[in-house]
Write a structure and sequence with these properties.
The protein has 335 residues and is α/β, with parallel strands linked by helices. It is 24% helix and 26% strand. It has 9 helices and 15 strands. Strands 3, 4, 5, 6, 7, 14 and 15 form a 7-stranded mixed sheet that branches. The radius of gyration is 21 Å and the shape is globular. The two termini are 22 Å apart. The structure holds NADPH dihydro-nicotinamide-adenine-dinucleotide phosphate (NDP).
Length: 335
């Protein structure tokens, strides 16, 4: 193997508040020659995800923090271009966790082959990957939503939110979304066939807007945002309802504690269940998820948007865009 140099993005400082471009730097690294049992991957796609913000903090979390001046990590899809591994021949397309760089070596641990015949390979970072599984697990395993019930989804036009809205629709639920622009609201109503959508940036009072759209109350809240959205959902929640705590993006860049939800005491009187989950605990659900969501995709009942950024150098911009509402649907970087 010829020596290969790989561009990769490292974190040079931990963000204070919203991440800035100068928290990141592109550096060049040399890839060591392949050992027995290893293969070399050239990345084609990488995902940027809100959870990465948590790993940019120094403190303990459910995943260890990113190290300064070490390459960042995250979901990626690439092609095996050299191999000393029988199960990963040259030309295999693989899903790994070595995003934010051009090339990586592996022994195959934690790496999955993906089938380009089933769907464009980048779909395995979105609807057919961690994003879609997150939506599916929240609705099926955490809330067990039933037909005829009302589901409220925040960040509804985002990667997870859009899939959650449509899985809930396919299950016969009445679905209400929230999103941060008129264009996103329109897409949700016209393309994702969500029943009603509020534009939280134009709402003077989120609770009363949600009440107006759901006068009978909501039964399930798929929380991607936290803060004021969680507060409005608790206000609107029917007795014995469930808050699926998937994410709280409105809090990720806060430097002080979030003031909301100020109405948490209502959880008692309404007997609300609030349950968090982490998708990586649900690998065993993948076959059932793929069967159900794969069928929705094949029947054309599941649609999604992608914001594609061109080139590794755009990865930090793509990531920061998550917190500015700049992306439509799944944010991906083509490397
Ligand atoms: P998205 O594609 O939804 O991107 C983020 C979106 O969130 C933005 O486009 C923006 O949309 C909205 N947003 C950003 N800041 C705010 C804010 N302050 N208030 C309200 N909305 C905001 O990301 P994902 O779909 O990948 O992730 C959605 C959520 O799911 C995140 O909270 C993430 O952490 C969580 N997650 C959890 C997992 C788990 O295992 N529990 C796994 C994967 C994701 P808009 O323009 O509408 O404001």
């Amino acid at each position: 193997m010829q020596p290969i140099t790989s561009e990769q993005i490292v974190l040079v400082s931990r963000p204070e508040g919203v991440p800035a471009l100068n928290n990141f730097k592109i550096v060049t690294a040399e890839i060591e020659p392949l050992q027995a049992g290893e293969f070399l991957v050239k990345n084609q796609w990488m995902s940027v995800d809100p959870y990465m913000r948590g790993r940019m903090k120094a403190g303990d979390s459910y995943v260890p923090p990113f190290q300064l001046n070490a390459p960042l990590e995250g979901g990626c899809i690439g092609e095996v271009i050299e191999t000393n591994h029988d199960n990963f021949p040259v030309g295999s397309m693989v899903l790994g966790n070595n995003g934010w760089r051009e090339y990586w070596k592996s022994t195959g641990d934690g790496v999955q082959k993906v089938d380009p015949e089933v769907a464009p390979v980048r779909t395995y970072l979105g609807a057919l990957g961690m994003t879609g599984l997150t939506a599916w697990v929240g609705l099926n395993r955490i809330a067990q939503v039933r037909p005829g019930t009302t589901v409220f989804v925040s960040a509804a036009s985002g990667a997870v939110g859009a899939i959650a809205c449509q899985i809930a629709k396919a299950k016969g639920c009445h679905v209400i979304g929230s999103a941060g622009s008129r264009e996103k609201v329109q897409w949700l109503l016209e393309k994702a066939k969500v029943d009603a959508v509020l534009n939280y940036k134009e709402a003077s009072n989120l609770s009363s807007e949600l009440h107006a759209l759901a006068p009978q109350g909501i039964d399930t809240y798929f929380d991607n945002v936290g803060g004021d959205h969680l507060e409005a959902a608790i206000d609107a929640m029917n007795d014995f309802g469930c808050c699926i705590e998937c994410g709280m993006i409105s809090t990720y860049n806060l430097t002080d504690a979030s003031p909301a939800p100020r109405n948490l005491f209502k959880v008692i009187g309404k007997r609300i269940r609030i349950q968090g989950f982490i998708v990586r605990d649900h690998a065993a659900d993948q076959p059932e998820f793929l069967k159900e969501v794969g069928a929705l995709i094949q029947s054309g009942k599941l649609v999604w948007q992608e914001s594609i950024y061109e080139g590794l150098a755009q990865a930090s911009t793509a990531f920061i865009g998550l917190f500015e509402g700049k992306n439509n649907g799944k944010a991906l970087v083509r490397i």
